[in-house]
Amino acid sequence: MSQQVNRAATQSITQKIFNKETLKYVMTTHFWGPVSNFGIPLAAIYDLQKDPELISGPMTGALVLYSGVFLRYALAVTPKNYLLFGCHVVNLSAQLGQGFRYLNYNYFDSKNAATSTEEKK
């Protein structure tokens, strides 16, 4: 009896996931654009473990602005693109973390800030 219940539940879930609407959505840029875009926040998350000396301040700032703009865009299009919105929430969070690390390393940590200032001269 429990095998029949499990089979029925599995079949019901499968039919809900693999229906025409879902497959139609997966074949659009509303799906593949954000999926391919997830490389940026994944790289930023990975880079959170690297030496803060390697962080580019201008690039981090540009990526913060980029994600901020596209957060709004993802909800302004019709239909709303929640996958793109989620991608940019993750990216914005990771880039803000990188930005904090950059500022802390270059300006707030007195040991590193003094070294950075001397190297720039």
From TrEMBL:
Pfam families: MPC. Signal peptide: none annotated. Coiled coil: none annotated. Keywords: Membrane, Mitochondrion, Mitochondrion inner membrane, Transmembrane, Transmembrane helix, Transport. GO terms for cellular component: mitochondrial inner membrane. Its main location: mitochondrion. It is found in: Mitochondrion inner membrane. It comes from the Eukaryota. Mediates the uptake of pyruvate into mitochondria. This is Mitochondrial pyruvate carrier. It comes from Wickerhamomyces ciferrii (strain ATCC 14091 / BCRC 22168 / CBS 111 / JCM 3599 / NBRC 0793 / NRRL Y-1031 F-60-10). The lineage of its organism: Eukaryota, Fungi, Dikarya, Ascomycota, Saccharomycotina.
